Hints:
The structure holds 2 protein chains of 2 kinds.
Chain A: H1 2-28, H2 45-55, H3 61-74, E1 76-78, E2 84-86, E3 93-94, E4 99-100, H4 101-136, H5 141-155, H6 158-172, H7 188-222, H8 225-232, H9 237-265, H10 269-274, H11 280-290, H12 293-321
Antiparallel strand pairs in A: 1-2, 3-4
Helix pairs in contact in A: 1-12, 4-5, 4-7, 4-9, 4-12, 5-7, 6-7, 7-9, 9-12, 11-12
Chain B: H1 2-14, H2 24-34, H3 36-53, H4 55-61, H5 83-86, H6 103-139, H7 141-156, H8 159-176, H9 183-213, H10 217-224, H11 229-265, H12 277-284, H13 292-320
Amino acid sequence: MLSFVCRRLFFAVILLFVVSAFTYVIFAALPSDPAALTCGKNCRPEVIAQNRVRLGYDKSIPEQYGNFLKGIVSGRTYGAGEGVHCPAPSLGYSFRKHQCVTDLITRTLPVTASVALGAFVLWMLIGIGLGTMAALKRGRWPDRLATGFSVIGISLPTFFIGLLGIMVFVIWTGLLPFPRYEGITADPAKWFMSLILPWFTLAVVSASSYIRLTRNGILEVMNEEFVRLGLAKGLKRRTLIVKYVMRAALLPIVTIAGLDFAALLGGAVITESVFSLPGMGKLSIMAVNDSDLSILVATTLVAATFIVIANALVDILYGFLDPRVRTY
Amino acid sequence: MNKKVKLLDEGASKTDSPVTGLSPGRLALDRFRRDKVAVWSLYVVCFFVFIAIFAPVLTTLFNISPYTLDRRALNDYGNPLGRFGGVSWNHPLGVEPGTGRDILGRLMYGARVSLLIGFIGTIVTTSVGLTLGMLAGLRKGFVDSLITRLADVTLAFPSLLLIIALNRPLTQRLESIGVPEGNFARMTYIILVLTVFGWVYMARLIRAQVLSLREREFIEAAQSFGASNGHLIFKQLLPNLWAQVIVFATLSLPGYVAVEASLSFLGIGLMAPAASWGIMLGDSVRYYRVDPTYLLIPGVTLMILVMAFNLMGDGLRDAVDPKSDKQQL
């Protein structure tokens, strides 16, 4: 078991290196000149040259990547002499915003995390709840209702659900205020109110596929031998379903959920831009509009890191629970 | 035992017509036909395909144009005159706020974009995924681990973020290497990134299938007769994979349609005056307080198309792979 965990973690670290190198090379190989983008349209060539040296874009790509990694470990000073110092872990310096990228990310990450966490709780409740109901009442109206909900939910694009939500609950009925994000420490009530719509938007989209997963998972487990055994030895239906069927059926679903949650932490790009939430997704979109490569490299990397870590954790957890999957 | 066999024989001889075995494809087709939801979804899909193909003819026929600006349909603030976003005889589904372009016409032309990206995206990702998946499954060893690791790396990337970030530079790149400028290059870019991030799922499915199929007796038999790789792939493996490939492709197509709309909504992808449902939806964000119909019409149209594809795919899957219907509880 220990060797499985070690191998899995080792692989995760390798994967992170590969992903970071890929990301760096992709962005470095872009035809645009990052130094030229640091100052406006009528910028003197000397300033561009100066900025190129300051940001380290004058070096070769492998060297730049090396410096980038060094910056993550030990912090980095941009510019000579009294340059700007970004303490470790430094993910770069944004010339557009005149800020360390790490600061920008630590500021936007809580917003994204708030969105992701609430949505996650909601979609698991809806998905597993309706999915179980559908499986147990198979072929009858609760099943039709749940599968109908999931088909519609899967077919609606995220942004359309979000806009519909604003239209119905904010403009037509006025039940909710227009979502304007407020930090949880500043005003928890406003924080909650501002996130209700984003949570539901994301939850409807994700819950739809979880309803299907749960329903199919439970129906599949119900055909297993041990369920027949349980029936034969006279277990109550309720006990059988809750203690045996659900446990076996939900395990793979929980692992998929871990991955989806991690992917969301990298920025719910569409939801954040529909509701103008200042999260990581919004940060990335703004960086695209500003052509701010330093931010884009960082957000891509942070998002990838979440995915890789979640993948490793899920595999290890699964390895504990089910020894058959220890393939690494 | 003997008696039973005899009885069966007698029973068979009584019905004059010999029992003909139906091919699996025929059985699947019959099952699909009996699935009402799936059949109706197929009709809906055909309807949209028809509209997309004949959009220029239909718009001329109804005397609507997706590009003509109609200032007379707007009031002084640029909002549509009349109820429901300016519904009138001239504009059956109303007009676009700000420009006065006809919404029905734009919907028809938008169907072309959606279906084109959906179909081409599906065909390209499916072919790439199928090829790489078969390669990994057949070649095992180094090639297999290379492809599997490549898939792992691809899945580790936040795809939407990268698609957005690389949009402008890569589209320019495409234009500089000779892809026709403008919306053609943008569409090429979308299909390109859909492929780069989308091949993984198909490849994994096919790899797993090939790994299990290659252990079966009929492959062994073919190999023992000295069958070539080409024969193994095209005559032995592919016929066993088609059903799953088609089902998987049908179910991934609506995803691509939705992605195109989402990207256009974010301002990536096609640009106006080209007509795309995503562009309309993205544009409608500025007007939905005064003109909610402009948001609802393309949104609901998109939903209907995506839903039809999803339901059709579900029906196809059930038809190809009918799960055992027994249930104990």
